[in-house]
């Protein structure tokens, strides 16, 4: 029976073998970076290096990472210079990198660029194809994992900001090979349900974790939605195809909830301002119309036949009062003038002359003023002051 070894002994033995193999010293390994994690406090860089079939963990300590001449990121194809070592406590082997040299774009990056170019030609990214997010939604649909922190963040934010909205959750697998199909089904279900806005949400993760959100089938499903869609996938620095196709991109799930619903207390303030403005406008309108009615009422009074009759009656009475003295004055003046004319006429009257002993001689109605105009036997009429006689000329 062989000796019983401890785990530490086995790991130490394997480490000694690997460290003693000169072929694993100063090696160059080509692969694609994934699961990149840069610790900004320590300066260490942790990542995986993979090809189509395998992956190996790598670490670059701060003493070397600070001397890097390029920015490393997920999906980059690089050559890593270093050596293979064993982390005895975890029983895992890894490459201790001393330098990283890029050799071109990674496979995922190329595929992603090709997909973006294809979707762009189909018009998926055009601003005019984006739908407006409703300002006062009644129902919000959330496509997310039921157990995700992203869903809890959305629920908390919406409950605080706009508790009157109905929240409908559509469960979806958001990681792995089956994720794209699950997301598409959930999006279609939310669209059929008749929500006002759909939020597609997932928390942060590696490029591989978020790869399903760079799927063409998911992009097609988002573009075909009748309902406005907000994409909130990963961290603020993560930008997926879903973010680009969606009607609105949010940097985080919490931000998506803030975009989807208004702040209810802010709405109260807005409504209060609108109410005050409406009251002010109504009061001003009523006051203005009251003034118009008053003016029109006064005009109606001025144009009233009754008022005109009363005014004309009063005027007639006043004219009558003024006319009586004028008539009396005129009559007095005319009477006095008449008396004066009568006196003058009386003075010129032939009868007045006859009263002084004169007589008026007429023949056939013609007054005789010349005695030679009379012939013998003419019959004349003689008018005296008192009486009238005929006489014959002899």
What does this structure look like?
The chain has 394 residues and is an alpha/beta fold. The protein has 4 domains: 7-105, Nucleic acid-binding proteins (OB fold (Dihydrolipoamide Acetyltransferase, E2P)), CATH 2.40.50.140; 111-126 and 133-262, 3-Layer(aba) Sandwich (Rossmann fold); 265-303; 352-392, no CATH class. The protein has helices spanning 7-20, 62-65, 107-121, 149-161, 179-193, 216-223, 241-245, 253-260, 264-303, 305-348, 350-354, and strands at 27-38, 45-50, 55-60, 76-87, 92-105, 139-144, 166-171, 197-202, 229-233, 248-249, 360-363, 366-367, 379-383, 388-392. The strands form 3 sheets. The protein has a 5-stranded mixed β-barrel with strand order 1-2-3-5-4. A 5-stranded parallel β-sheet has the order 7-6-8-9-10. Strand 8 (197-202), helix 6 and strand 9 form a beta-alpha-beta unit.
CATH class of the largest domain: Alpha Beta
**What gap, in angstroms, lies between the N and C termini?**
220 Å
Secondary structure tally: strands: 14
Provide the CATH superfamily of the largest domain.
Response regulator
Query: Under CATH, the topology of the largest domain is which?
Result: Rossmann fold
Strand composition percent = 15-25%
What would the principal axes of the Cα set say about the shape?
rod-shaped
- Name the strands of the widest sheet in spatial order: 1-2-3-5-4
Q: What is the count of distinct domains?
A: 4
Q: What is the chain-wise order of helices and strands?
A: HEEEHEEHEHEHEHEHEHHHHEEEE
What is the radius of gyration? 62 Å
Total helical elements = 11
Helical fraction equals: 40-55%
Mean pLDDT value: 87
């Amino acid at each position: 029976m062989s000796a019983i070894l401890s785990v530490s002994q086995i790991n130490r033995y394997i480490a000694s073998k690997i460290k003693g193999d000169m072929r694993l010293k100063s090696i160059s390994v080509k692969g694609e970076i994934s699961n990149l994690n840069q610790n900004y406090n320590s300066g260490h860089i942790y990542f995986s290096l993979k090809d189509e079939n395998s992956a190996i963990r790598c670490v670059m300590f701060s003493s070397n990472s600070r001397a890097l001449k390029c920015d490393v990121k997920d999906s980059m194809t690089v050559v890593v210079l270093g050596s293979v070592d064993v982390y005895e406590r975890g029983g895992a082997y890894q490459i201790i990198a001393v330098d990283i040299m890029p050799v071109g774009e990674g496979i995922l990056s190329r595929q992603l660029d090709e997909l973006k170019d294809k979707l762009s030609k189909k018009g998926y990214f055009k601003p005019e194809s984006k739908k407006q997010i409703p300002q006062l939604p009644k129902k919000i649909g959330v496509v997310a994992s039921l157990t995700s922190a992203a869903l809890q963040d959305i629920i908390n934010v919406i409950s605080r900001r706009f508790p009157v909205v109905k929240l409908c959750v559509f469960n979806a697998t958001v990681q792995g090979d089956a994720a794209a199909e699950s997301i598409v089904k959930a999006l279609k279900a939310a669209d059929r349900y008749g929500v006002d806005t759909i939020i597609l949400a997932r928390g942060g993760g590696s490029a591989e974790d978020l790869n399903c959100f760079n799927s063409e089938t998911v992009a097609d499903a988002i573009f075909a939605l009748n309902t406005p869609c907000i994409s909130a996938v990963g961290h603020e620095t993560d930008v997926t195809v879903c973010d680009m196709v969606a009607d609105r991109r949010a940097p985080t799930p919490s931000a998506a909830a803030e975009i989807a619903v208004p702040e209810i207390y802010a709405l109260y303030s807005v409504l209060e301002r609108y109410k005050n403005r409406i009251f002010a406008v109504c009061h001003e309108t009523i006051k203005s119309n009251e003034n118009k009615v008053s003016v029109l009422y006064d005009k109606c009074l001025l144009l009233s036949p009754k008022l005109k009759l009363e005014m004309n009656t009063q005027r007639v009475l006043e004219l009558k009062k003024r006319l009586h003295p004028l008539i009396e004055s005129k009559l007095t003046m005319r009477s006095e003038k008449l008396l004066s004319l009568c006196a003058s006429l009386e003075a010129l009257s032939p009868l007045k002359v006859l009263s002084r002993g004169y007589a008026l001689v007429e023949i056939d109605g013609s007054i005789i003023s010349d005695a030679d105009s009379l012939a013998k036997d003419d019959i004349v009429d003689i008018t005296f002051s008192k009486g009238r006689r005929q006489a014959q000329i002899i």
